[in-house]
């Protein structure tokens, strides 16, 4: 059952992506709003899936483990 749902989502995504790109470049006014909403949803999803960014990324470690 899960395989069927995931396959349907994949087909809808693959079929909808070119339409969103086309709508963003031209077409009826309502398609522009749908394209913007889809792109925004993708950005939110990407931001949620990225690892958390806490602290500075200066490359220094605080473990104090040097070679003696």
Strand % is under 5%
Distance between the termini: 58 Å
Helical percentage: 55-70%
Count of helical regions? 2
Low-confidence stretches: none
Give an overview of the whole structure:
- The protein has 68 residues and is an all-alpha fold.
- It is 66% helix and 0% strand.
- Helix 1 (2-25) packs across helix 2.
- It is flat and about 35 Å long.
Question: Main attributes?
Answer:
mainly alpha, 2 helices, 0% strand, 68 residues
Briefly say what this structure is.
This protein has helices spanning 2-25, 29-49. With 68 residues, it is mostly helical. α1 packs across α2 (29-49).
How does the SSE layout of this entry go?
Layout: H1 2-25, H2 29-49
Helix pairs in contact: 1-2
């Amino acid at each position: 059952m899960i395989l069927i749902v995931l396959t349907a989502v994949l087909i809808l995504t693959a079929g909808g992506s070119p339409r969103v790109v086309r709508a963003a470049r031209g077409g009826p006014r309502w398609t522009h709003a749908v394209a913007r909403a889809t792109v925004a949803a993708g950005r939110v999803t990407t931001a949620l899936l990225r690892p958390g960014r806490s602290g500075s990324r200066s490359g220094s470690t605080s473990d104090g483990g040097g070679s003696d």
